[in-house]
Design brief:
The strands form 3 sheets. A 7-stranded mixed beta sheet has the order 1-2-3-5-6-9-10. It has a 3-stranded antiparallel beta sheet with strand order 4-8-7, with helices on one face. By secondary structure, the protein is of the alpha+beta class. Strand 12 (260-264) and strand 13 form a beta hairpin. The protein has 8 helices and 13 strands. It folds into 2 domains: 2-192, Dam replacing family, catalytic PD-(D/E)XK domain (PvuII Endonuclease, Chain A), CATH 3.40.210.30; 200-270, Winged helix-like DNA-binding domain superfamily/Winged helix DNA-binding domain (Arc Repressor Mutant, subunit A), CATH 1.10.10. The radius of gyration is 20 Å and the shape is globular.
Length: 271
């Protein structure tokens, strides 16, 4: 990370302040408002956003590229973008359920950019969620469309934001305020250890523990405070009959990865 920052300071990439305004003056051939806003929001991302992994500018794929919307040709990361007027709630609509599950289990899945913009056509929030945080547990299966619908029987899905730890929602812009580039890059690296967890079940446990930590009022906490989530974790993992030992195991793992610091006497602190 330090080597990357030295590279930037030598002028190999820019720390220029972002323009948070969407270009509504683009000449567009589309009649559909949804197509127009897609082009306008993706135009902004192509101009302003950098890769959270290496810091270099992202590039836009040709239109209708099935794999993703943007890519970084330096570190070979792909990004798909979802944009909406206003802020994202606890869940957002995604694609067809079976295809979504197959995609997040694929080795070719992209990272996700999320953009929330205002009626004034300015960016309110923009953040990225790393692809390795997308596991089946954060995808909700929706009810099939009614028989009277044009796509009768079609089963959609939702992305459950409340199942994604806060540290996994890495902001470039939050409440209309740009986040320093160094902070974005460091936030990406902070949780990069998760991508090396191969088993989906093991990754699910780590994310569940991180979500429990998010519910605490302080970054400093005791083991007894985490034990209070025992019932919740049992509901999420009914096959496990040793929840407390499992909690201690996950805390030890997070400690070994530098995410937590053990303070002694059953006390921990988030780094």
């Amino acid at each position: 990370m330090k080597e990357l920052l030295k590279y930037y300071k030598r002028g190999n990439t820019k720390f220029d302040k972002m323009d948070l305004t969407l270009n509504r003056n683009l000449k567009l051939k589309y009649k559909s408002n949804s197509q127009k806003i897609r082009v306008i929001t993706e135009d902004w991302t192509a101009r302003e956003i950098f890769c959270p992994n290496c810091g270099f500018s992202v590039k836009q794929y040709p239109a209708n590229k099935p794999v993703a919307d943007f890519y970084c040709d330096r570190c070979i990361e792909d990004f798909e973008q979802k944009s909406k007027l206003g802020r994202f709630g606890k869940k957002i609509p995604a694609g067809e359920y079976n295809k979504m599950i197959a995609r997040i289990l694929s080795k070719q899945k992209p990272n996700f950019f999320f953009m929330g913009y205002l009626k004034s056509m300015s960016i309110d929030n923009f953040f990225v969620v790393p692809k390795y945080l997308f596991i089946p547990e954060i995808i909700e299966k929706r009810k099939p469309l009614a028989k009277t619908a044009r796509r009768a029987g079609w089963v959609g899905s939702n992305i459950l934001f409340y199942n994604i730890p806060k540290d996994g929602q890495i902001y470039y812009i939050k409440n209309g305020i740009e986040i320093d580039k160094k902070i974005v890059l460091e936030a990406w690296q902070k949780i990069a250890f998760i991508k090396n967890i191969r088993k989906v079940e093991s990754k699910g446990w780590i994310l569940d523990i991180m979500n429990c930590l998010d519910e605490l009022k302080s970054d400093e906490f005791s083991l007894e405070e985490i034990y209070k989530f025992e019932k919740k974790l049992k509901e999420l993992h009914p096959e496990n009959n040793n929840i407390r030992p499992k909690i201690r195991q996950q805390l030890q793992f997070l400690r070994n990865k530098g995410y937590l610091k053990f303070l002694g006497n059953g006390m921990y602190r988030k780094n």
